[in-house]
Amino acid sequence: MTTNQALYQYCLRLGDTNLILGHRLSEMCSRGPMLEEDIALTNFALDHIGQAEALLQYAGKLEGKGRSEDDLSYLRNVEEFENFRLVEQPNTDFAYVIARQFLVDVYQCLLYQKMQKSTDETLAGMGSRFLKESTYHLRHTSGWMERLGLGTDESKRRIQQAISDLWQFTPEMLTAKSYEKELEAQGIIPDAEEIALDWLVQVVRVLSRSGLHKPQDVAVPPPISHSDHLVRMLAEMQYLQRTYPDARW
Amino acid sequence: MTSNHTDSQGPVWEVFTQKKSGAPYQHAGSVHAFDKEMALENARDLYTRRDKPSGLWVVPAAEIVAVDPGDAAPFFDPADDKVYRHPTFYEVPAGVENL
Amino acid sequence: MEKLHDFQRFIDAEEKIEPKDWMPDEYRAHNIRQISQHAHSEVIGMQPEGNWITRAPTLRAKKILLAKIQDEGGHGLYLYSAAETLGISRDEMIAQLHAGKAKYSSVFNYPTLNWADIGAIGWLVDGAAVTNQLSLRRTSYGPYSRAMLRICNEESFHQRQGYEIMLKMAKGTPEQKEMAQDALNRWWWPSLMMFGPHDNHSERSTKGMLWKIKRASNDELRQRFIDKTVPQAEFLGLTIPDPKLRWNEATGHYETSDINWEEFNQVIQGNGPCNKERMDHHKQVHAEGAWVREAAAAYAARQKEQLQEA
After folding, report:
1. Nearest residue, CB atoms, B33 vs list A36, A43, A139
2. Count of B–C CB contacts within 8 Å?
3. Which of A34, A45, A192, C116 could pair covalently with A26 via S-S, beta carbons 3.0-4.6 A apart?
4. How many angstroms separate the CA of residue B83 from the nearest CA in chain A?
5. Given an 8 Å threshold on Cβ–Cβ distance, is A39 in contact with B46?
6. Cα–Cα distance for residue pair A249/A247, rounded to 1 Å
7. How confident is the prediction along chain C (310 residues), in pLDDT tens digits per residue?
8. What is the CATH number of the domain that holds B56?
């Protein structure tokens, strides 16, 4: 695999993660626990979709086949999606939305912070732009982790449940793919192991401040495979583009 | 400005924004929130989505003290006849400058 | 009586009434009714368009639609706040909505069946709404007027984004054009109904006009909307679904068939295609959010206690 191909894969991985997370958050529109929070979640959706656009556009450029960010979003099949499995998990309840977001926010803050120093100018630029958004997201979700963790018995039970259920998907997010090693060595992308260490420290800090405990790590992580959730999500997302291939929107 | 603390949407907060550094803070509207941090964040999402301000305040609506409209006359009218507080009250002789 | 007389003089002088000023009970009630109905309309209006966020055909379209629906939610909040200054809480307003005591615009009880509906809503429904809202900037109740100013400023992109979708569809493939025409067919009449009954049938119009809560009559506003919208439809190459539509040179206005008031009344009374769905959605989300709001309240109470102990 050439550096270009590896970087293309990497941009897909980050871009798809933002796309799918943005889509999940967009499903929350008109479903927030209060109207103010509805608007906050929509803002997050907009940020992630914007990040996906930039990353997928760059991926298309690296691929060199003339595919746009829309082509990549709307005309690929499920097995071609590279997003973290964590972000395709459904909006089971508000606790899941917050827990999923929080786990990603900590990761993205660390990632973008380091990405600012990438030897690849485009990535570096995206890193500093996205970092501001993710920093705000983390502030918001950390606040909710604490409110839910220290709120009522019910909220504590729900947020602990969500964290525990989603924990099994975090190793995949924190582990570099084989093709990433070369990119790390060249200083193009951040070192995944460093991020993983910091991530655990920061997550545990918020969990304990919120009266929650870190779930047991699973001895054998589940096989990395997309879920039925993603298949259904893509069917909906790609509906118009697939049904009317000649149309321009 | 109402202060319905038992409301399940949380108490009301008044929001003030500053357009640019050095400019006065102006009332933008209100939000509901349960705590200070939530009030700041809700205010940010509701009142600063379009134009980037340089500052944002939130104040519990219940803490705002206002003049009762019934008291407005004794409160404000006396300022009306103190014309000598305005520079236009004074006559400046022709030929005198920078005064 | 003296007070009422002074109040009317104040209104006639185009002064604004502020929350703590004296006002007749009926003025207060009229404003609460109108502003809360307006707020509920913004919030319920998030649903028909929200249906299509997950199916928006491009990333750009998805972002625009999200930002637009987010604005509707924000506008709901501005209006709830304005109504709250009259002494009603947001909780009470929501309870009235759920009990069927407070209404919302009947236009949101129609389904969104294809992507062009999103264009038609922006173009026609927001277009009708903004015609009304522009006139309400001069409403006599200060907080309502200020909310309207802010809303009108923000709404200005809504109609354009809708028209942009219509234009793309109308100039697209034959199938797309068909969808555009279909959407216009279904949304035209409900949009005209948004302005409410004819002037002589609307019992509240008079008091509302006298107190300058409403600034133009239903029929006046409706006509204004028709006059500016018909040429826009012509530009799209689409046909307004009204065989009697014609330009009247003498009056300088378009003439139309009369509205199907039977349908209007049915939808208002809860028998529209989606009344139950919209209300069920709102109730369900509100109920599902209760534990979150309780947690936030409990957390805030605990924080306060700790502050006092310290």
Report:
1. A36
2. 58
3. A45
4. 48
5. yes
6. 6
7. 789 999 999 999 999 999 989 999 999 999 999 999 999 999 999 999 999 999 999 999 999 999 999 999 999 999 999 999 999 999 999 999 999 999 999 999 999 999 999 999 999 999 999 999 999 999 999 999 999 999 998 888 999 999 999 999 999 999 999 999 999 999 999 999 999 999 876 555 578 899 999 999 999 999 999 999 999 999 999 999 999 999 999 999 999 999 999 999 999 998 999 999 999 999 999 999 999 999 999 999 999 898 888 7
8. 3.10.20.520
**B2 DSSP assignment:** -
Chains A, C: CB contacts under 8 A, how many? 131
Is residue C93 one of the residues assigned to a domain? yes
C145 and C287 part of one domain: no
Domain check: are C67 and C105 in the same one? yes
Picking from C17, C18, C20 by the largest number of B CB atoms within 10 A of its own CB, the best residue to mutate is C20
Number of Cβ within a 10 Å radius of residue C252 = 8
Q: How many domains does chain C have?
A: 2
Does B49 sit within 8 Å of A36, measured CB to CB?
Answer: no
C306 plus C233 within the same structural domain: no
Q: Round to whole Å and give the CA distance between C310 and C305.
A: 9
Q: How far apart are CA C132 and CA C221, in angstroms?
A: 7
Q: Within 13 A of C213's CA, how many CA atoms are on the CB side?
A: 19
Query: What does the alpha-carbon distance between residue B60 and residue B96 come to, in Å, rounded to a whole number?
Result: 51
Q: What is the pLDDT of residue B83?
A: 85
Interface of B with A in 28-47 (CB under 8 A): 31-35, 37-38, 41-42, 45-46
Q: Which residues in B lie closer than 8 A to residue A39 (C-beta atoms)?
A: 42, 45-46
C158 and C288 assigned to the same domain: no
Q: Give helix then strand counts, H and E, for chain B.
A: 2, 3
What was the pLDDT predicted at A137? 98
Residues of C in contact with A50 (CB under 8 A): 63
In-domain check, residue C265: no
Cβ–Cβ below 8 Å for B42 and A36: yes
B45/A143 Cβ within 8 A: no
Fold of A3-243: Ferritin (1.20.1260)
Summary mean pLDDT of chain A: 96
User: A32 and C285: CB-CB below 8 Å?
Assistant: yes
Asked if A41 contacts A32 with a C-beta cutoff of 8 angstroms, the reply is yes
Roughly how many angstroms between the first and final C-alpha of chain A, as a whole number? 35
Residue in C59, C74, C290 nearest the CB of A53: C59
ipTM score: 0.96
